[in-house]
Specification:
The chain is an alpha+beta fold. The chain is about 30% helix and about 15% strand.
Length: about 200
C-alpha cells in the first residue's frame, strides 16, 4: 500500500475558508492548532486548495470521479493501476494507490483486459495411519533456565497428526544431537520407552 493523505470534504472547505477569511473551524483550541499546522503553507486559487508544492487537493467525494475521468481518457487513459497512479499523484493530492485500484476494479474495460488471478489450489494432506505425519515445534522458556531444572529451557514438542499422540522433551539447547535423542532418525519418529509421554486432545 502506498500512502497518500486523505482530505475530507469538510476539512477542505474549512481550510479554504480559513485561508481566505482567517476564520478557524468551531472546535477546541487544541484542534484549531492542529488544523493550522496541517494546512500551513497551503494556498487557495480559483476556489481550490493547493499544497505548499502547488499540487491541487482533491476532496474525498471527488476522488472516484477524477480517477474515472483519467482512466476513460482515450488518449492518456486506459492503463494499469501503477501507471495511472503515477499520473494522478503528480497532479493531485488526496488520491491514494488503493483508491485507484478500487475504482479500476469496477471499470468494465479494466476487468476485460486485466490478467485473471489464478487461484492457488491447496491439496490437503490427510494422514491415514499413525506415523504418517508429525508436527514438531520448539519453544524457548527462559524462566526454566535454572540449575534446579538442569538449565533446560527449550521445550521440544512432537505430535502425531493421526492419533494426536504427543511427545514433549526439555533440553538445554536445540542441537541436532538432541533432535536425534528425541527419536527422529531420518524422517521417522521412534517412541523412546524411557520418556514420559501423554496423550492430549488437540482440536
Amino acid at each position: 500500500m502506498q500512502y497518500q493523505q486523505e482530505y475530507l470534504d469538510e476539512d477542505v472547505e474549512a481550510a479554504i475558508k480559513y485561508l481566505t477569511t482567517g476564520q478557524l473551524p468551531p472546535t477546541s483550541r487544541i484542534n484549531q492548532l492542529r488544523f493550522i499546522r496541517r494546512f500551513q503553507g497551503y494556498k487557495v486559487r480559483d476556489g481550490k486548495l493547493y499544497t505548499p508544492l502547488g499540487i491541487e487537493v482533491v476532496p474525498k467525494s471527488q476522488v472516484a470521479p477524477i480517477i474515472q475521468r483519467y482512466y476513460r481518457d482515450p488518449v492518456a487513459g486506459l492503463c494499469g493501476v501503477e501507471k495511472l497512479w503515477d499520473k494522478l499523484r503528480a497532479a493531485y493530492a488526496g488520491i491514494s494507490y488503493d483508491d485507484v485500484a478500487r475504482v479500476l476494479k469496477l471499470e468494465e474495460t479494466y476487468q476485460l483486459h486485466s490478467v485473471p488471478v489464478k487461484q492457488k489450489v491447496v491439496t490437503p494432506v490427510i494422514p491415514q495411519r499413525p506415523g504418517d505425519i508429525y508436527y514438531m515445534d520448539s519453544v524457548d522458556i527462559p524462566m526454566l533456565n535454572v540449575p534446579a531444572n538442569g538449565n533446560r529451557r527449550y521445550l521440544y514438542v512432537i505430535v502425531d497428526a493421526f492419533s494426536r499422540y504427543l511427545w514433549a522433551y526439555m533440553y538445554r539447547d536445540l542441537s541436532g544431537k538432541n533432535a536425534a535423542d528425541a527419536g527422529l532418525p531420518g524422517s521417522r519418529l521412534q517412541d523412546p520407552p524411557d520418556r514420559q509421554r501423554q496423550r492430549l486432545d488437540i482440536e
